[in-house]
């Protein structure tokens, strides 16, 4: 049906209606009687001449969803806009877009009946119910981009996401997540912090620094890092270089410290060791080059303020005190124990020393009381508790135990000793030594339970001195005695007591026996001449006394200054036989 400006008052038109001009409807106007009916308007404006709200549409079924089209202000007003079916209608299309979306204070964008919401408050948008995921750039030009109380997470789906913050600060991801802090934010230091998909934190740039010195810690007493990995040449720096620990290839170097203190914790069980150094089992070391396991390099000059100093020690080891819960015995205790080196495969050690002292001597100023002892056992006091008599070899300043030399096969060792002294001190340069001794016992007795043997003469060349024995010499001396008033039967400088010989096995026969045996007189050899006959025994002054109990008599005889018998002792008590140049001579003793 086509109408050309007719006028109707009520009624119904069935079928299609085409209006080619204006259509004015006073009252209600209903289109269609089925859901498939459509109203098509082409190039036509629908205008309400009496109201600026020109077009009103309402879904009659629920008496709501009213659209108000304002042609004057070019907007659409509504109380509630809802689609006919959930997830069936869109606001705009991919080609036809709304220009802007204006929401009031407290507005909410609600996804899937509250699954995720974006809620507005003053200066704040809150995402709730899910994660805000960005697949492109997020740029913040206002204040900070933050999460509060672990309530939100920034998750980046792309490996190239970059978030721009204040100034030139950025948060970016490249094969992980890296956070880059600009120079203006943290004291002119550029820091890059990355977290890989495996949970590994990577740091790049020049440094990772706290905002203020001594305010931040790496870990806590309850939450600790497992390991610390530093590159070659890495430095652990304390207090801006006050003390440093620096790495080099196979080496750690402390620098700047005045002291290193190791305080061992108190243990109540086990066998604790405060410090253990385990040497490496090295192989193919540099030939002909010494390899020192522990080097205490104290070779430097240490200067003190002016003033006398009684004792100065470079290394001091204090002695421990050992105790037990109950009565117990430690057979041997030592503050320091040292073993000598052993020769291994293909090695020959000519000299093996458990302790080697002073291969290079010091330089000392000349003073009257000068002492130099590479090894000094100082005077000390041993306190013994209890009342049990000590019957062992007893306390001693130095003790040398028995050296046992063994081998898997027969071997001959020409000479071995418990104590070996190479020689007496030797003067060099312009030094004069008035008396030089290989061993000096300043006071006290020398006890020899073993045999004293003078080996065949192999001593170094020496200067001959009148009336001094080249092998043994007892110098003139004054001996002071502290006895109370008393009588001593015999006083002597040298005493030979009676020696008693016994045998452990079968009968042992000595053809001749003597307390003192002199083999012969000295023999003049190369470049030596004797003016007078040599003597095997020379008594330069004083009278000898010979006591005898032979069959010739029982009375001892003392020779007088005139070589005669004293008083009326005229009976010969003993004849001394002396061989002089092969002839036997007899010396009577009255």
Describe this structure in words.
- This protein is 0% helix and 16% strand.
- With 590 residues, it is an all-beta fold.
- Among the domains are: 110-142 and 153-205, no CATH class; 536-590, no CATH class.
- The strands form eight sheets. Strands 10-12-13-14-15-16 form a six-stranded mixed beta sheet, with no helix packed on it. It has a three-stranded antiparallel beta sheet with strand order 3-4-5, with no helix packed on it.
- It is rod-shaped.
- It starts with a strand and ends with a strand.
Order of helices and strands: EEEEEEEEEEEEEEEEEEEEEEE
Q: How many β-strands, per DSSP?
A: 23
- How do the strands of the widest beta sheet line up side by side? 10-12-13-14-15-16
Unreliable residue stretches: 59-64, 149-178, 180-191, 549-570
Q: What is the average of the pLDDT values?
A: 77
Alpha plus pi helix count: 0
Give the termini separation.
191 Å
Helix content: under 10%
Strand content: 15-25%
Shape: rod-shaped
Q: Based on helices, strands and strand pairing, what is the structural class?
A: mainly beta
Whole-number radius of gyration?
A: 58 Å
For the largest beta-sheet, the strand count, sense and barrel status come to: 6 strands, mixed
């Amino acid at each position: 049906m086509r109408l050309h400006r007719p006028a109707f008052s009520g009624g119904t038109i069935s079928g299609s209606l085409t209006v080619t001009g204006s259509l004015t409807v006073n009252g209600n106007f209903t289109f269609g009687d089925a859901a498939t009916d459509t109203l098509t308007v082409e190039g036509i404006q629908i205008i309400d001449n009496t109201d600026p709200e020109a077009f009103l549409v309402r879904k009659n079924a629920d008496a709501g969803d009213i659209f108000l089209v304002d042609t004057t202000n070019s907007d659409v007003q509504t109380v509630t806009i809802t689609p006919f079916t959930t997830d069936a209608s869109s606001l705009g299309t991919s080609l036809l877009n709304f220009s802007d979306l204006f929401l009031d204070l407290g507005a909410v964008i609600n996804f899937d009946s509250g699954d995720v919401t974006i809620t507005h408050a003053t200066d704040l948008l809150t995402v709730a119910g899910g994660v805000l995921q960005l697949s492109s750039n997020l740029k913040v030009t206002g204040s900070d981009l933050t999460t509060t109380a672990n309530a939100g997470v920034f998750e980046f789906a792309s490996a190239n996401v970059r978030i721009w913050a204040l100034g030139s600060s950025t948060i970016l991801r490249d094969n992980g997540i890296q956070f880059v802090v600009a120079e203006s934010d943290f004291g002119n230091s550029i820091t890059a912090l990355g977290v890989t998909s495996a949970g590994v934190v990577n740091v790049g740039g020049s440094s990772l620094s706290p905002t203020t010195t001594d305010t931040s810690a790496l870990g806590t007493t309850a939450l600790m890092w497992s390991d610390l990995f530093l590159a070659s040449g890495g430095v652990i720096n304390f207090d801006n270089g006050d003390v440093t620990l620096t790495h080099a290839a196979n080496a750690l170097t402390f620098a700047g410290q005045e002291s290193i203190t190791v305080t061992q914790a108190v243990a109540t069980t086990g066998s604790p060791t405060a410090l253990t150094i385990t040497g490496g089992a090295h192989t193919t070391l540099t030939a002909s080059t010494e390899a020192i396991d522990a080097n205490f390099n104290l070779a430097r000059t240490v200067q003190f303020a002016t003033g006398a100093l009684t004792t100065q020690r470079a290394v001091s080891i204090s002695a421990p005190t050992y105790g037990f819960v109950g009565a117990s015995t430690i057979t041997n205790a030592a503050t320091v124990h040292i073993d000598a080196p052993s020769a291994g495969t293909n090695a020959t050690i000519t000299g093996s020393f458990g302790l080697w002292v002073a291969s290079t001597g010091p330089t000392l100023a000349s003073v009257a009381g000068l002492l130099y002892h590479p090894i000094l056992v100082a005077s000390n006091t041993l306190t013994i508790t209890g009342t049990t008599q000590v019957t062992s070899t007893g306390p001693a300043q130095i003790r040398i135990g028995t050296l046992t030399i063994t081998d898997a096969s027969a071997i001959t060792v020409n000479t071995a000793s418990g104590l070996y002294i190479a020689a007496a001190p030797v003067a060099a340069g312009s030094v004069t030594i008035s008396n030089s001794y290989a061993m000096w016992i300043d006071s006290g007795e020398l006890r020899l339970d073993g045999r004293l043997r003078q080996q065949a003469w192999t001593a170094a060349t020496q200067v001959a001195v009148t009336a001094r024995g080249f092998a043994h010499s007892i110098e003139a001396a004054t001996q002071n005695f502290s006895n109370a008033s008393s009588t001593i039967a015999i006083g002597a400088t040298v005493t030979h007591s009676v020696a008693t010989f016994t045998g452990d096995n079968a009968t042992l026969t000595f053809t001749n026996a003597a307390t003192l045996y002199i083999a012969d007189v000295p023999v003049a050899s190369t470049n030596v001449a004797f003016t007078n006959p040599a003597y095997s025994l020379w008594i330069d002054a004083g009278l000898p006394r010979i006591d005898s109990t032979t069959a010739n008599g029982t009375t001892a005889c003392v020779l007088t200054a005139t070589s005669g018998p004293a008083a009326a002792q005229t009976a010969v008590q003993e004849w001394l036989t002396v061989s002089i140049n092969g002839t036997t001579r007899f010396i009577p003793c009255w």
